[in-house]
Design brief:
two-stranded antiparallel sheet, 465 residues, TIM Barrel, 39% helix, single chain, binds flavin mononucleotide, 2 domains
Length: 465
């Protein structure tokens, strides 16, 4: 089997909306430091390629039920700087939003963390659109939103120029002659874009990796284009293998059109494995998690402000094609009821059966609540044993659908422990993960070459956007 890129998408209070409610789960962000350190050590022992920290520059009650992991979180650059000190080999990827960040400060922090970690840092550059993030940075949202992609492109260009400020061999450091810095080895940045102006040079040496690997995540044509033109890793949300395969093909075709070697663009998909010692255990666990997801009907006087409107029987009703007003969410879906459902309703019944083992004719039939959860928890879930998960990974890899996965954990710390103690050994046994780290830097883990400095070449070869 070919090697896949496997990273951990770190969400300290769990990636499943009700994960934090599970007995024994880590649920108080004030204790994140210990969970982060433990996650990092386990991931490294398991030979994962990187830890990946997403981000969101705002918070509010609306996130409590939709994306509880976003309510309160450690700043990603701070997290990776900290974890660099408690790990030795694993890559460390942090998210930065180019709409609001200052490029000189980001170039400086990332070059510093790359140096401090021995070349293990990576950067996920996003251009998300939340009016609260704009308000938090004193920026007019309409303006920020209109120019976010132009700014994103400039941001990456200026980062790369800043990282190239010093030549790799700039420091002669010859104590006898008194020459510290070779003449001509420090280059001004002189970047004048529409949105960003940076004089440079950067006051940190060229990163160990030359340029940090850049990740882009998103599904719109604009996000895809920006990923294809210059990213090292594209994180794409894919519903199934066929979808992932078509997205990867499209991205690689765009990369080729942009004049790149398309093999240098790696495509990874997020995945949320729900892992058990047996398939029945895993399904039982998935079942308990879905029962812990609250739906609007759980509040007789209506859900709290910010509750996701879709998570309700009122929303399920048109999906299944049956009137559900006044019906209990815990009504069992019998074969007679399921027979009245339209195509989407049938699909939801199948999803619930696959994840929880509940079937309309079985001993444990699904309830309407299970269908609401299946319709509204939008995560790429695989439920099963270590072998089931490894089979799925291999199937996607063998089909050329992805170059790897970003692994989410439904409940922390137990499900990440299950991934590292059960699934990772299976992946190593199959050669999907290496038995030992083969490279030193994140670039090497990803199978990517170290880029030359743009100042090292007499002719600008167009390798960068
Ligand atoms: C799998 C995945 C993960 C993402 N993670 C983040 C994130 O952590 N923070 C963020 O601000 N945006 C995140 N995004 C959003 C994208 O980076 C992008 O900015 C957003 O989709 C808006 O892009 P659009 O203009 O293509 O709609 C993620 C997107 C995907 C598909």
């Amino acid at each position: 089997m070919t090697r896949l890129i496997i990273g951990a998408m770190v969400r300290p209070i769990g990636a499943y909306p009700s994960g934090w409610r599970y007995p024994g789960a880590h649920r108080d962000p004030r204790g994140d430091a210990a969970v982060l350190r433990r996650t990092a050590r386990l991931a490294e022992e398991a030979r994962l390629d990187y830890l990946f920290f997403g981000d969101w520059l705002a918070t509010g009650y609306d996130l409590e039920h939709q994306e509880p992991h976003l309510v309160a979180r450690v700043d990603p650059l701070s997290a990776i700087a900290h974890l660099a000190a408690v790990t030795e080999r694993i890559g460390l990827i942090a998210t930065v939003d180019s709409s609001y960040a200052d490029p000189y400060a980001v170039a400086r922090a990332t070059a510093s963390i790359d140096l401090l970690s021995g070349g293990r840092a990576g950067l996920n550059l996003v251009t998300s659109a939340d009016p609260r993030a704009a308000a938090n940075h004193g920026v007019d949202f309409e303006v920020a939103n209109a120019v976010r992609y132009e700014r994103a492109i400039e941001f990456e260009r200026v980062l790369r120029r800043l990282w190239d400020s010093f030549d790799d061999d700039a420091f002669v450091a010859d104590a006898s002659s008194g020459v510290l810095l070779a003449p001509g080895s420090l280059h001004p940045t002189d970047f004048r874009g529409r949105h960003l102006q940076v004089a440079g040079p950067l006051n940190v040496v060229r990163p160990v990796q030359g340029h940090l690997p850049i990740v882009r995540s998103g599904g719109s044509p604009r996000s895809q284009l920006i990923a294809a033109q210059s990213a090292d890793l594209a994180l794409v949300a894919a519903n199934d293998l066929a979808h992932a395969a078509s997205v990867r093909e499209e991205l690689r075709a765009l990369a080729f059109e942009a004049g790149r070697d398309d093999r240098t663009l790696k495509v990874v998909a997020p995945v949320l494995p729900i892992i058990g010692e047996t398939r029945e255990h895993a399904q039982q666990f998935a079942d308990e998690l879905s029962e812990l997801v609250q739906i609007a009907e759980d509040w007789p006087d209506g859900p709290p402000a910010g509750f996701p409107a879709t998570r309700s029987l009122a929303n399920l009703s048109p999906l299944v094609g049956v009137e559900l007003q006044g019906v209990s969410p815990d009504l069992a879906v019998t074969p007679q009821i399921a027979a009245q459902f339209g195509a989407t309703g049938q699909q939801l019944v199948e999803i619930v059966a696959e994840r929880t083992g509940r079937t309309p004719g079985g001993l444990r039939p699904p309830t309407l609540r299970h269908l609401v959860v299946a319709a509204t928890v939008n995560a790429p879930i695989i439920v099963g044993t270590a072998a089931d998960i490894a089979n799925e990974f291999e199937a996607w890899g063998d089909a050329g659908a992805v170059d790897g996965f970003n692994v989410l954990s439904a409940v922390q710390p137990t499900q990440f422990e299950a991934f590292t103690s059960l699934v990772a050994p299976e992946l190593r046994r199959r050669g999907v993960l290496p038995a030992a780290y083969e490279g030193e830097t994140l670039r090497e883990h990803l199978g990517l070459a170290r880029p030359e400095s743009s100042f090292a070449r007499p002719v600008y070869a167009g390798a960068f956007i």
